[in-house]
From TrEMBL:
InterPro entries: RutC-like_sf, YjgF/YER057c/UK114. Gene3D superfamilies: RutC-like (3.30.1330.40). Transmembrane segments: none annotated. It comes from the Eukaryota. This is Uu.00g060130.m01.CDS01.
Amino acid sequence: MKSIIALRAALGTTALAKLQPNYTSPAGVEIYNPSTFFASTGPWSLMSKAGNVLYIAGMRGIYRSNSTLAPTGLPRIQLAFENMIALAEMEGTDRYSCARLVVYTTDMYRFRPLCNQVQQELWGNDTNMYPPRTIVEVDRLNDDDIVEVEGTFWVAP
């Protein structure tokens, strides 16, 4: 819970700077790879924006400061969600404007309860405020990780 409180304090300063896209397609799709985040681990970008819809790639529990993974379990899952929300806030939206979450985990039995716990810490106990979520167990994730969380957010005009 302490890391969630620290995240909320830190994110308040992150959202002040207007993020600039790294590339804009001829159709107007903006691609983002903020320099304050870890570099992508392959040929993909961290997020894109089409109109007022923000798409955030599967975030993992990677520390932005040194591109290493947080310890397995709750710390890594918290950081994956925190990274996703930090990106959303950098583009001027917030967790409550999340239109959809997709969570991938390698062990539903072990990690689904931790994902639920982190979501409750972030969105509170009012179930009416939870974004729709799909959680899927997969055989394997990049770097043998335990969870990835991707989000789709509405960005007000």
